Amino acid sequence: MIACKRVYDEAVKDDGYRILVDRLWPRGIKKSDLNYDEWNKTLAPSSALRKEFHSEAIDFNEFTRLYREELLTQQEALQKVAERVRKGNVTLLYAAKNREQNHAQVLAEVLKEIA
User: Where are the domains of the chain?
Assistant: First the structure.
């Protein structure tokens, strides 16, 4: 199972393997305070794409399309996480405020397709 969770939400046992999938470290959290197993910057959107989306230069549909294109170049990293998913629960951690429209949701969809 793949879940998406804000880094500011409480960790629970059912989260399983917790992967931070942001390129930047989340504001206001010390590295020693975040319960995570891996920080995978490789699967985060590029800085340019992230900035375009957050400045509203592109909408979520366009962001999703472009991010999926970026993920196509990261097959090795995707397969590594997909293997984790096959073994048990994986939680993708992100800092974005919007819980429905963020890169972790897109990444989770891609991982479900290949796992």
Answer: 2-114
